[in-house]
Amino acid sequence: MPPDFAPLKNDRILRAARGQTVDRPPMWVMRQAGRYLPEYHEAKGKNDFFACCRSPEIASTLTLQPIDRYDGFIDAAIIFSDILVIPQAMGMEVLMVDGVGPRFPNPLRSPSDQQYADLLAKEVDVKKELDYVYKAITLTRQKLDGRVPLIGFCGAPWTLLCYMVEGGGTKMFREAKTWVFKYGEEGKKLLQKISEICVEYLVLQVEAGAQMLQVFDSWAGELTPASFEVMSLPYLRYISKHTKERLKERGLDVVPMTVFAKGAWYALDQLCESGYEVVGLDWLHDPAQAVEIANGRVTLQGNADPGVLYGSDASITNVVEHMVQGFGGGKQRWIVNLGHGITPGVDPEKLKLFFQEIVRHTT
Ligand code: CP3
């Protein structure tokens, strides 16, 4: 049974996700608990990044930092974790190298590697392997005391496959493209395996206290529209369908789900029919055009260029005005966010101004 938590005092984001009217648009930003905040560095100290994810105490502290700092503005918390905890649960080693990013010492290179057969054959105990995430979620819900809803998340199968075969970030996508154009059939088997783990992981996050779920397909934009239909979309659909079915079966709340397929502007129409209540937009979309395509089928989330937070106050106001106008005033079917994660080096006061300008233009 899910634990008992304090009643929600602010359900703006859940209402907006379900298409209900809100007094002002709900707001949060991707990577809101992160390196642009001095208190993040202080709390993280010398701890390794994944050690922070594995400590429910540290993860919940980091999750709450932006909620405290932007009290009254931020309408959701997102659990401090990473999409790469799934490859770890599947048995792959992943390190976070300071100033470099994630590194897999032994990436998966070819379907003829023993590692490929092992990954497919392994029965991952998703409850046990990722128990620290569920504990962090439950503790965070307790600490939040109903202030705002807590978002759980996972990486999309395509994006996770990219990391597993590239062994880290990349600009070339040489390995990932090899799995699209040479090992497509073997790739699909692995994508299916990852999808099944994603479903179980998301359901267990809800059981632990997550009130909304987001699937991050950060590398969707590397695919052609045709490859997206083969390597990404079927698995995004599988996840929404089966997560909802399993939540229902287990008597859990069927929480709203968001899909964020970065760079897949060409697939917006399909994403509106992929079983998610919310579709996240990066900054390549013009708000008004996206609203026209979505045509009331989903709630849209986004989509300011995170780079505007390096800019002048006047450019922040400009971007906000363009979004508010494009998203139709903001009282319905819009969740305010950036078009991708907030970047290190941003002055936290600029994010505050962004939130203040949204409030000023929508109330
Ligand atoms: O506040 C939040 O949004 C919650 C926490 C969160 C993190 N990662 C913390 C993090 C979330 C939702 C993620 C998801 C994630 N992780 C994605 C999908 C979203 C996206 O940005 O596209 C991806 C691709 C990853 C993989 C990952 N983790 C990369 C590529 C990196 C290095 C990137 C960089 O900025 O250098 C990380 C590290 C990471 N994940 C940090 C944080 C706060 C920085 C760690 C540090 O150096 O302290």
TrEMBL record:
Keywords: Cytoplasm, Decarboxylase, Heme biosynthesis, Lyase, Porphyrin biosynthesis. InterPro entries: UROD/MetE-like_sf (IPR038071), Uroporphyrinogen_deCO2ase_HemE (IPR006361), Uroporphyrinogen_deCOase (IPR000257). Catalyzes the sequential decarboxylation of four acetate groups of uroporphyrinogen-III (octacarboxyporphyrin) to yield coproporphyrinogen-III (tetracarboxyporphyrin) with the formation of intermediate hepta-, hexa- and penta-carboxylate porphyrinogens in the heme biosynthesis pathway. Acts on a number of porphyrinogens, but only coproporphyrinogen III can ultimately be converted to heme. It is found in: Cytoplasm. Belongs to the uroporphyrinogen decarboxylase family. One of its GO terms (biological process) is heme biosynthetic process. Gene3D superfamilies: 3.20.20.210. Residues 26-35, 151-167 form the Uroporphyrinogen decarboxylase (URO-D) domain. The gene is HEM12. GO terms for molecular function: uroporphyrinogen decarboxylase activity. Pathway: Porphyrin-containing compound metabolism; protoporphyrin-IX biosynthesis; coproporphyrinogen-III from 5-aminolevulinate: step 4/4. Its EC number is 4.1.1.37. It is an enzyme of class 4 (lyase). SUPFAM superfamilies: UROD/MetE-like (SSF51726). It catalyses: uroporphyrinogen I + 4 H(+) = coproporphyrinogen I + 4 CO2; uroporphyrinogen III + 4 H(+) = coproporphyrinogen III + 4 CO2. GO terms for cellular component: cytosol. Its main location: cytoplasm. This is Uroporphyrinogen decarboxylase. Pfam families: URO-D. HAMAP family: URO_D.
